[in-house]
Recover the amino acids of this structure.
């Protein structure tokens, strides 16, 4: 320790010496300018004048600097002495030190864990070139529209889009599904991404009929290409076609939406989809030119929206594009939840800090005699205050260090609980900003909440304390401050408990929502037929029909298929026309979900049939076209008529239109999420579809024993028909429901955890305050008992004081909760932020906990021996 102090002293002197030399030179220069005429008059040369100035002014300036150095060194030595003394005192009170550090560690650790998530998700810059210039369109768009915008919007320097789809990769032992990013040449250029190996697709290659080229992700390169440094030039097989690898992306790169293993040109991979103007399936991103604002770009986009709507009314009549900064587009949905959680965990820190301040005050009152003796011996108030603050700062820094350990564990827990909707998970880690946050919070906690005992020290009456041996003023004042702290703790705890109660109630209602089907004992898996082998609809139909026949012959198995499974997060919309209804302008037709099914899908998923009939094997190719609609479609388009027998067709079909007859009505199904409204839907048989691009399907298999063995048996049946078809996204239907609730569960669990922590800390706080109050009133209780007070009277006395504190804390907490819970309205489902039942239940719970915390010291007071109490000092 001595060598460290000596090193600090020498560094301080060196820095002051350098400053001294600079000041001295400045004074000499000014002196020479002022005395220039006298120098020439006396015949003194410039060198002699400089030497004289050094002698004249140097000594005085040097003495001033030495004085400043000495004062600084004395302050440093006093501070080091205070630190050493504080450390010794903390070692002498291990119980107090451990409780104080643990209290702060819980609060700081929880805050650091949440801040690390906020830092990674909301604060860290995006991993793209000049990310502040990047904007996204809220609505998806088609590639022809993207090309028009690239040419006609001067505000953008670059732009491009991506759509991620699943394709089969057959380069390994078994066929697997990989996620392929279908892009245009402008996508990667807009993001400013350079490959780790090779190059990206050029505009000349991004054309219909261009070469089949692929860029692979770093993950794909490692897992499937063995991290081969010479992978560029190799060939991979996707969707039945061969692609030449021209680049390997860096490990840090991920597209703004979803995850992609391989990137290929949309024009080359699927030219039919690329040319469709009304196929709005691309997520598009744009780079603003230097000096162009978002408002200017939005104005230009409004102009091209109007031009496209006039030029292509059938596809773009309702077009209205909204631009948002890319960062906001990525985190907009999770920002409110994270900010609410950060506010909640900040309240937990306040409760922890209140307990910390209360502990420091009790310690300050307990050491009041030492303080007044020091003051009587000549110690100034400033010296005593600095000693108290130093001890507080030491505890807070140690608490912050321990909080980092809690934060590491907490961050790991958060990542384990992470919902799929939480963007930018890779950016969550302990970096410099997080460490700086811990340091600032720790230091501020030590200084701000260390002021409470400082106030007691500053107001201590030396004469009174030396005369009576007790500092009545300090004790009374400290007791009053502790009451305020406990009331604040209870109020804050009630706010958190109400927030958690609202989320729990909303989650319970969401979980009890009827999804429209029975998820028990259902397994789903995704299949996609290769375009090269199943280019004709009859081949697709034959495969589906043969597969279902084989699966339904398995013991106890009921199998069917649908294009998009409920809660799968994806389905296709299409406009439709109703025969006999008033005509609708081209481009303004209502849109519905379109779902193709085969087999007894509604029976397998146990979706109720409300009217009409189900599909039968007779509803096949070559027979009259039929459709089944859901109840929402009936409510919206057939409110006062029977839909059975109605005729509909898809909008903007080639003439003549292919009319479908509605043969049945089924119950509503929550396709987009349990907390999302139900959209109108139309179900049609796969065998009657003329959409050749629908080569994808999801199997729905109901069986009493939905085990891994059944999954393997299903795979065998699939591969017996076509050994190159990969099977992916194997899930139990219950898992999909759980995933759809992940964000709400994440919010509920975290806020519930913080509320529980706040309740425990508040209970500890009121217990500590009441126990200390009983200890301080031991003499008074002894007198009351000696004068005839019964045990129930003592119990009533202590409990009455505790009840007053609890009542005030609950009252202030209800007022705060009424104001603050409105901020979390967007996180609640079918629950009002001012739900009376939740407020009442939480108030009763907190009152019971507070009274229980008061009862323990009250029982101790009841057992006070009057003779011992009367002698209590």
């Amino acid at each position: 320790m001595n060598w460290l102090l000596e090193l600090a002293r020498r560094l301080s002197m060196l820095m002051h010496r350098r400053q001294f030399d600079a000041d001295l030179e400045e004074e000499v220069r000014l002196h020479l300018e002022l005395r220039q005429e006298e120098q020439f008059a006396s015949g003194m040369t410039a060198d002699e004048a400089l030497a004289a100035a050094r002698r004249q002014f140097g000594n005085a300036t040097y003495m001033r600097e030495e004085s400043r150095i000495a004062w600084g060194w004395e302050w440093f030595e006093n501070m080091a002495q205070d630190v050493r003394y504080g450390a010794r005192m903390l070692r002498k009170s291990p119980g107090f030190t451990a409780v104080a550090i643990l209290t702060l560690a819980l609060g700081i650790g929880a805050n650091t864990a949440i801040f690390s998530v906020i830092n990674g998700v909301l604060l860290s810059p995006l991993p793209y070139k000049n990310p502040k210039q990047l904007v996204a369109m809220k609505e998806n768009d088609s590639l022809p529209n993207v090309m028009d915008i690239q040419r006609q919007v001067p505000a953008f320097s670059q732009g491009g889009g991506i759509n991620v789809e699943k394709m089969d990769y057959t380069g390994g032992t078994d066929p697997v599904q990989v996620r392929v990013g279908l892009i245009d040449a402008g996508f990667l250029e807009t993001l400013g991404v350079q490959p780790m190996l090779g190059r990206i697709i050029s505009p000349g290659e991004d054309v219909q009929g261009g070469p089949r080229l692929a860029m692979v992700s770093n993950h794909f390169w490692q897992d499937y290409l063995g991290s081969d440094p010479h992978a560029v030039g190799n060939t991979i097989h996707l969707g039945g076609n061969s692609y030449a690898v021209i680049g390997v992306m860096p490990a840090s790169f991920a597209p703004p939406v979803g995850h992609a293993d391989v990137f290929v040109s949309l024009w080359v991979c699927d030219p039919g989809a690329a040319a469709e103007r009304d196929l709005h399936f691309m997520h598009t991103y744009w780079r603003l030119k230097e000096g162009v604002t978002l408002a200017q770009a939005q104005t230009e986009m409004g102009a091209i929206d109007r031009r496209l709507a006039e030029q292509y009314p059938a596809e773009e009549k309702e077009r209205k594009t909204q631009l948002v900064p890319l960062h906001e587009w990525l985190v907009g949905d999770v920002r409110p939840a994270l900010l609410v959680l950060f506010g909640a965990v900040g309240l937990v820190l306040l409760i922890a800090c209140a307990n910390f301040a209360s502990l420091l005050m009790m310690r300050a009152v307990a050491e009041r005699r030492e303080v007044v003796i020091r003051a009587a011996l000549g110690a100034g108030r400033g010296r005593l205050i600095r000693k108290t603050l130093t001890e507080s700062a030491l505890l807070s820094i140690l608490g912050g260090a321990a909080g980092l350990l809690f934060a590491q564990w907490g961050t790991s827990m958060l990542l384990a609980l992470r919902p799929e909707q939480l963007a930018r998970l890779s950016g969550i880690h302990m970096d410099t900003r997080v460490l700086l946050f811990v340091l600032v919070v720790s230091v501020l906690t030590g200084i701000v909440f260390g002021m409470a005992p400082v106030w007691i020290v500053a107001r201590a009456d030396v004469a009174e304390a030396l005369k009576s041996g007790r500092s009545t003023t300090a004790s009374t004042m400290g007791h009053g401050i502790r009451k305020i702290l406990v009331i604040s703790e209870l109020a804050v705890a009630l706010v958190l408990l109400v927030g958690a109660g609202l989320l729990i109630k909303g989650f319970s209602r969401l979980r009890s929502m009827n999804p429209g089907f029975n998820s028990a004992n259902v397994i789903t898996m995704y299949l996609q037929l290769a375009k090269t082998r199943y280019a004709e609809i009859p081949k697709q139909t034959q495969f589906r029909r043969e597969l279902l026949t084989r699966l339904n012959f398995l013991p106890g198995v009921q199998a069917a298929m649908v294009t998009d499974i409920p809660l799968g997060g994806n389905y296709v919309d299409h406009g439709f026309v109703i025969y006999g209804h008033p005509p609708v302008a081209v481009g303004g037709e209502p849109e519905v979900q379109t779902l193709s099914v085969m087999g007894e899908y509604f029976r397998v998923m146990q979706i109720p049939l409300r009217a009409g009939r189900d599909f039968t094997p007779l509803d096949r190719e070559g027979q009259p076209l039929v459709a089944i609609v859901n109840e929402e479609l009936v409510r919206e388009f057939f409110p006062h008529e029977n839909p059975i027998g109605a005729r509909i067709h898809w909008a903007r079909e080639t003439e003549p239109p292919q009319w479908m007859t509605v043969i049945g009505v089924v119950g509503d199904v929550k396709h987009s999420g349990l907390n999302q409204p139900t959209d109108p839907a139309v179900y049609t048989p796969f065998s009657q579809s003329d959409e050749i691009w629908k080569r994808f399907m999801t199997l729905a298999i109901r069986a009493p024993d939905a085990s891994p063995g059944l999954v393997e048996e299903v795979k065998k049946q699939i591969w017996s028909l076509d050994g190159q078809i990969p099977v992916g996204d194997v899930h139990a239907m219950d898992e999909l429901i759980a995933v759809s609730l992940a964000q709400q569960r994440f919010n509920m669990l975290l806020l519930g955890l913080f509320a529980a922590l706040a309740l425990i800390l508040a209970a500890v706080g009121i217990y500590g305050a009441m126990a200390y109050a009983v200890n301080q009133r031991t003499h008074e209780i002894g007198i009351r008992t000696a004068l005839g007070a019964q045990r129930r009277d003592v119990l009533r006395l202590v409990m009455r004081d505790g009840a007053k504190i609890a009542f005030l804390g609950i009252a202030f907490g209800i007022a705060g909760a009424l104001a603050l819970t409105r901020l979390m309205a967007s996180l609640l489902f079918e629950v009002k932020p001012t739900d009376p039942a939740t407020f009442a239940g939480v108030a009763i719970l907190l009152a019971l906990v507070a009274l229980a915390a008061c009862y323990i010291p009250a029982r101790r007071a009841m057992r006070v021996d009057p003779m011992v109490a009367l002698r209590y000092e």
Notes: Residues 441 and 710 are 55 Å apart (CA to CA). The chain has a mean pLDDT of 80. The two ends are 41 Å apart (CA to CA). The longest helix spans residues 46-92.
